[in-house]
Amino acid sequence: MDSYSLQTQNQNRxxxxxxxxxxxxxxxxxxxARIVILCVVAALLAIILGGWYTHVHxxxxxxxxxxxNLLREAGEMRNPLAEKIGADQIRRMLVEExxxxxxxxxxxxxxxxxxxxxxxxxxxxxxxxxxxxAASTRLSVMNYELANMELYGDEENLCFSIPELYLExxxxxxxxxxxxxxxxxxxxxxxxxxxxxxxxxLFPDPWLFGDEExxxxxxxxxxxxxxxxxxxxxxxxxxxxxxYRVSFDELYFNELVRQFLYDYVDYSKVGRxxxxxxxxxxxxxxxxxxxxxxxxxxxxxxxxxxxxxxxxSLCGGRIRVDGDxxxxxxxxxxEKMQGMLTVKSERQEERKETEIIWxxxxxxxxxxxxxxxxxxxxxxxxxxxxxxxLGCELECDGRKNSFDxxxxxxxxxxxxxxxxxxxxxxxxxxKGESFDMEIDELTLSAEDEELWLxxxxxxxxPLKRRVRQNVKAKTAFFELSEREWDKIFEKVxxxxxxxxxxxxx
Length: 505
What we know:
The protein is of the alpha+beta class.
């Protein structure tokens, strides 16, 4: 071996110190940190997006958004003419404060004497806070004053005077009207009245119409406690594709229904006996299942239908309620709605079934609002069925402040129809306070025969002073004796003898 080559190899070795290492580039700690941060952010975004996706597809979210959309659509479909006159504020003024009404009407009808036009002018005031009301009415025929009537009422009495009939400062007590009648001369002549006694409610508490935001808001406020209990014990869950179930505990739902019936009995005379009958055997703790509703909600969070999953069982199964409602509008779901309601009840030996099928359409273009409803109602009681059909058409022009309306009621079996049509407009509008309404034409017809034609004006304004007591409570109407009535009839006959003779001879 060449000595030169050995010497060269030995020179390249480092015989004194650590062995030489290969070159490595320095580590980039910033890049590693970025990767870790990005991974954490991605994980957080995945969790947030996953939670958001789960939330927006949850039953509670879909149901809440669905009802919020319905409320928004209802706000968009408000009648422009009602908005212009401030109908909500005026309604509240009517039921909470008081108003002054001034009406001038001409009523035309056919009689056996020919066509007669009766003028009816009324000045009416009501003070809801002080619970007083007064009215003055003047009747005239062809500008000839026929009669005047003064009326005054408070919480105790209803007083009236009709000078032409020699009845002045006469009153009827508001309490126990039937009892007053049964102890009077009239019951001896025409027989005693039967049934539950009642009182004249001149100033009922119409809380349902007192809220400026409408009856729906008023209902929620009036029964806030009962509704809160229902919501606290309700459940919401998915029930299928685009289907969601809302279930209520029957105990709290029944309590809400029972409280509503109690208030209805106190407030309304219509259907009062039926409501009291339901309350007489209302069973809060019944053995029925939970009360549940099925909502169909599409991907745009629009409610397409609401239906009762199983017939609601109330009063221990004595009353069963079933129904549904469909929202079929295109631009707004509430532009077209259809529904059905069935109520079956058993009371002692009586069985009653009521079925209501209805449809409502409405549209709003600029300031032109149109609404049309069609209701079919079938009532079966003890094997006998009665079918009634109701219809309503309304058109309001917010630019011209005019309206046209038509209401029909038809007995299907007897083919008997009653039609009421009205047209007119508003002027001198002070929103939420006052207006003048001109009735161009209001007709009442039966079987295509016109019964009444009404034209006139109605002025509404706030009450600016206390109601004037124009009649005193001096003579009790039901306590007038036979001798007193004979004197009254003699005077009336003496004054109107010629007119009565012309009518009957």
